[in-house]
Amino acid sequence: MGVASDERQQLCELFDRVGPDAPTLCEGWTTRDLAVHLVVRERRPDALAGKLLQRLADRGERIESEIGDRPWPELVDMVRQGPPKWNPLGLSAVDETVNSAEFYVHHEDVRRAQPGWEPRPSDPARDEALWKALSRTAKVFYGRSPVGVVLRRPDGTEIAARRGPRTVRINGETGELLLHAFGRKQVRVTFDGNEADVLAVEDLRRSL
User: What confidence tens digit (pLDDT) does each residue in 54-94 have?
Assistant: First the structure.
């Protein structure tokens, strides 16, 4: 079992507990909407094409609607089972590389939309997988920042996400830094830097 697989299973267990109409941190999405997104992502790339090509938009919406109409337990099982054999995401190495961050973030999207949430305890294997994912993508997430951005975890390790004339340092546990990069508001991080520069970075993340 890897981090991606663990996060997938824990998310599905949470889906089972909260049901299809619970809120998430994805604006406008319920848990059913999130589950449909995950199923379409892994099983129906033809529906995803509708996000890119207007002429295929109606087909994509129809596919999403058909999947969303499935009974909730069936929909959750489709997420739990993962991608079909023809999808490269079904290979454990690919799954771990691509899906560790994806399923961690979406697991937290459901957890942190519930009242009284607290960050989960640190887990070395999970944190290392998420740090690797963040190292690969940080420059994409912060590439439009008007100032430099450095991500720093408690052990002092840093990722230079964006270089600039002035720098904002974002401090936090690995998972919190990843969630901030993904634009989530329910995170626990601190900032070092000029107040105006910090606000500029925060405005950038809110635009995602």
Answer: 555 566 677 788 888 999 999 999 999 988 777 777 788 88
Of 39, 41, 66, residue with least CA distance to 51: 41
Q: Identify the residue whose tokens are 């993508």.
A: 137
pTM of this prediction exceeds 0.70:
yes
Distances, alpha carbon 128 to alpha carbons 15, 131, 175, in Å: 26, 5, 10
Query: How many other CB atoms sit within 10 Å of the CB of residue 153?
Result: 21
Residues in CB range of 172: below 8 A, 6 or more apart = 152, 153, 180, 187, 188, 189, 190
Query: For the chain, how far is it from start to end, CA to CA, in angstroms?
Result: 31
Question: How far, in Å, are 7, 65, 81, 125, 194 from residue 138 at the CA level?
Answer: 21, 33, 29, 20, 21
Largest CA distance in the chain: 53
Q: Give kind and range of the element (H or E) at residue 35.
A: helix 31-43
What is the tens place of the pLDDT at every residue in 118-160? 999 999 999 999 999 999 999 999 999 999 999 999 999 999 9
Using the structure block, give the residue that is written with the tokens 């230079």.
160
In 16-147, which ranges are E strands? none
d(CA 89, CA 138): 22
> What is the Cα–Cα distance from 27 to 75, expressed in whole angstroms?
21
Helix (H, G, I), strand (E, B) or coil at 158: strand
